[in-house]
Write a structure and sequence with these properties.
Elements: H1 2-9, E1 28-37, E2 49-57, H2 67-73, H3 79-95, E3 102-104, E4 110-112, H4 125-134, E5 139-152, E6 157-159, E7 171-173, E8 177-190, E9 195-209, H5 223-236, E10 242-251, H6 259-270, H7 274-287, H8 290-306, H9 310-322, H10 327-342
Parallel strand pairs: 2-3, 2-4, 2-5
Antiparallel strand pairs: 1-10, 5-8, 6-7, 8-9
């Protein structure tokens, strides 16, 4: 948590993805903000280079008897051998270069495993050390198992249209939506402490339009490789910060003498000129009615949060309610207090 708090505080404002401020007939506009979430798993401090190894393969002589399973599950026989490498490529492309983290392919990039969904025993730590030393890596990420299959997204449905021959028997239509599934099990080895940093099994899937005739629907040629690639990217996301989206309401209209000034300030916020918008709302405070002043304070609070200053946002949200009785300011204050407690 300490690491994430430091990460959050040094996050540049430009990395907070801002949604457009929507206007319309409502008295409120809003802005969407994306704030970071901590990663599910933290890499140890010293891990900067990760070697990638595929252990999901099996020796050719051990593959006898697996053809039937491949037919039953919808797997294209032999395709897992190539597709499993795509999972490593997905990891490589997603993590390589992220915050000085390097993914490398060691000289010994393939090891034999079970070739099934059965999880193999841990690698010998001397072997882990040798692979890491050969590639100057701090940790070893191993794709321990990889298995794929495909299934029709919906079961065969009956089309109740009368057959051309005039009988009432339903015509069975084969859906052309195919879902390709990949089940992968990963382990991340630390050769220094001889511990497993992470081990995780996850199922990934993508949906494709099937190809083939009316009696046979199969996935397109690229389906398995694309799904395997996404499985690798999805796994390594466990070590990367995510984000959550929040919505902040603000007022776009005022009344009386402040009406035009409110509109002008709101237009500035629509084009992300938040400093200009704050200048406009601040000017309103000097001559605005109590109600308009509360609205202006609330908007200034939102602008400060957009610009990355939670403390100032909290001050203005409190002022909106405590001084001017704006109920939206009261609710916003509670939200900001909760957010600050997490930082």
């Amino acid at each position: 948590m300490l690491y994430f708090c430091r990460f959050l505080k040094r996050l540049p404002v430009c990395l907070l993805l801002l949604g457009l401020v929507f206007s319309g007939c409502s008295k409120h506009g809003y802005v969407n903000l994306d704030y970071p979430l901590p990663p599910q798993v933290y890499l140890p401090e010293g891990v900067k280079t990760i070697a990638l190894v595929n252990r999901s393969l099996t020796r050719p002589e051990e593959k006898q008897g697996q053809v039937l399973e491949a037919i039953v599950t919808g797997e294209i026989s032999g395709s897992d051998r190539l597709a499993s490498d795509e999972s490593l490529k997905g990891v490589f492309d997603r993590i390589n270069g992220y915050r000085d983290i390097q993914a490398v392919i060691p000289p010994q990039t393939r090891l034999y495993g079970t070739g099934t969904r059965e999880t193999p025993e841990l690698l010998d730590w001397e072997l882990v050390r040798n692979i890491c030393d050969a590639s100057n890596a701090d940790a070893l990420l191993v794709l321990e198992t990889f298995d794929s299959n495909s299934d029709v997204l919906l079961s065969t449905v009956a089309n109740r249209v009368t057959a051309a021959l005039g009988n009432n028997a339903p015509i069975h239509a084969v859906p052309n939506q195919i879902r390709v599934n990949v089940l992968a099990f990963w382990r991340l080895y630390d050769p220094v402490s001889k511990t497993i940093i992470d081990q995780h099994q996850a199922k990934s899937f993508l949906t494709f339009n099937g190809v083939g005739g009316s009696n046979l629907t199969i996935p397109p040629p690229e389906a398995l490789h694309n799904t395997a690639y996404e499985a690798g990217r999805n796994y390594i996301e466990r070590f990367l910060p995510g984000h959550y989206t929040v919505k902040r309401d603000l007022y776009k209209k005022g009344k009386g003498s402040s009406k035009q000034a409110f509109k002008a300030a709101f237009r500035s916020s629509e084009v992300a000129n938040w400093q200009g918008a704050m200048d406009g709302w601040s000017a309103i405070l000097a001559q605005a009615s109590r109600k308009n002043a509360g609205k202006a304070c609330l908007n200034i609070a939102v602008a400060h949060e957009v610009l990355g200053n939670t403390d100032l946002a909290l001050e203005w949200a409190k002022k909106s309610y405590e001084v001017y009785g704006n109920k939206l300011g009261r609710d916003y204050t509670k939200v900001l207090l909760h957010r600050r407690s997490l930082e």
